[in-house]
């Protein structure tokens, strides 16, 4: 079904070798996959296999060594259409929450006044109504990460790149944010590429899970997750859920 | 929530401290019968401030005003020139490579020792004084600002780089705000040095100002106005410091919880 649509983003044989003082380090061996509009795709893989590297290459923060990244050119300007949620919240501590959310608007030189409404709406969406005028130092880690999600959405990007956004959080907060993220994804119609260490998290969230091997990484599996949506916590105890998780676990073992 | 201490609450201990120090000073002078040309009593220091005679060929007010204006002008120029020079040097790796060694060498010079040279180059008076004060004071601002501009977490830059931020935007949105605490600590060091520079300038190249007054009174072993001038100078230094502290709090409201009192 999906494959008949035009991909939003195609990676073809993307490779990345870092050259450092100590010699060459092959991070991305050979990575090829497509992402379709409105899809929720997760990437799992062992630590150090190049997941962050891959997201940064897609966002244009790092040059790739070889390969191609094809984007739906007509109306997809990568610098305006990508929202990046980094592993750390990376809030500017001298800006109030609302001004942090509006940062991409300022950088893209859009009309700040007109976007303030939207920033407030997004903060409410991530459950932070009433915190607009606080400074980041006054928020908890989980709240900071939610601010960073609102910030990544503020310029209405088509593609969200999320690098282990909930990695540093406790299990309860993480699972609550998973539900919130799915709600946001459904409400806003974004395409999401989500990097995680958590196999369960990947299964719970995704339409498709891409499994990368250890360095130099290749794609060892692309697994469609056909659990019904909208997904609630109950999904986690369904037998299919466990089966998907096990399959990913096994391919990580082999890879 | 604690009750906010009133101004009186905060000022009272300091006031008591000052009053008892002065009382002790007066007592020691009276007990040991110290000669006035060695150390004057606080009373005669105070009286010298209001004597109708001219001090060092001018009224007190002329000296005070001269020194105040020199401090204000040289500190403002130090802050402005220092900030923009640091910005310029930090703009690119190339500029840093060219100018950092120059700055390091200049900074290692004994700047106060240059004062007589500036007298030769610029003549007596205001210009020479201000120039000497700037030379003496401006390296802390420059070096601190450069350090602040370059101490940004790379990840923080990625945050706006992926949106194709321009170099100017990176400076305006991230590097400069990030460097504010560094700039202010540089300004505080520079403030003290500005006062030193102005006074040294007046020793060397002036016929007005509190520095000149000290030198001139010294020639006549007239210590009470020297002491009075010293107190006025340190009051100016403290005033400048307080002004910077106030600006720091006003410009960095996110920081107030952490910094507390800097004095
Ligand atoms: N700037 C760099 N210079 C040299 N090597 C790097 C650089 N950044 C990453 N690497 C190396 O590339 C490999 C992949 O790094 P990357 O951060 O992409 O891994 P990751 O999959 O995100 O790991 P994790 O799950 O632990 O976050 C690692 O072995 C790392 O040491
Ligand atoms: Mg990573």
Automatic annotation (TrEMBL), chain A:
UniProt cross-references to SMART domains, sorted A to Z: AAA
Claim: ATP-binding is one of the keywords in the record: yes
MF (Gene Ontology): ATP binding; ATP hydrolysis activity
Residues of the ABC transporter domain: 9-239
Keyword ATP-binding tagged: yes
InterPro entries: AAA+_ATPase, ABC_transporter-like_ATP-bd, ABC_transporter-like_CS, ABC_transporter_ATP-bind, P-loop_NTPase
Alphabetical list of SUPFAM superfamilies matching this protein: P-loop containing nucleoside triphosphate hydrolases (SSF52540)
Alphabetically ordered keywords of this record: ATP-binding, Nucleotide-binding, Transport
UniProt cross-references to PANTHER family, sorted A to Z: ALIPHATIC SULFONATES IMPORT ATP-BINDING PROTEIN SSUB, TAURINE IMPORT ATP-BINDING PROTEIN-RELATED
Protein name: Taurine import ATP-binding protein TauB
Lineage of the organism: unclassified sequences, metagenomes, ecological metagenomes
From TrEMBL, chain B:
Membrane topology per record: Multi-pass membrane protein
Record localization: Cell membrane
One Pfam family, short name: BPD_transp_1
Major localisation: membrane
Keywords linked to the UniProt accession: Cell membrane, Membrane, Transmembrane, Transmembrane helix, Transport
CDD domains in UniProt: TM_PBP2
UniProt-listed SUPFAM superfamilies: MetI-like
ABC transmembrane type-1 domain location: 64-244
GO cellular component, one term: plasma membrane
Regions crossing the membrane: 12-32, 71-91, 98-124, 130-152, 182-205, 225-244
Gene Ontology biological process terms from the UniProt entry: transmembrane transport
PROSITE patterns: ABC_TM1 (PS50928)
Signal sequence segment: none
InterPro entries: MetI-like, MetI-like_sf
PANTHER family recorded: ABC TRANSPORTER PERMEASE PROTEIN HI_0355-RELATED, ALKANE SULFONATE ABC TRANSPORTER-RELATED, MEMBRANE SUBUNIT
Record's protein name: Riboflavin transport system permease protein RibX
Species of the source: bioreactor metagenome
Record gene name: ribX_1
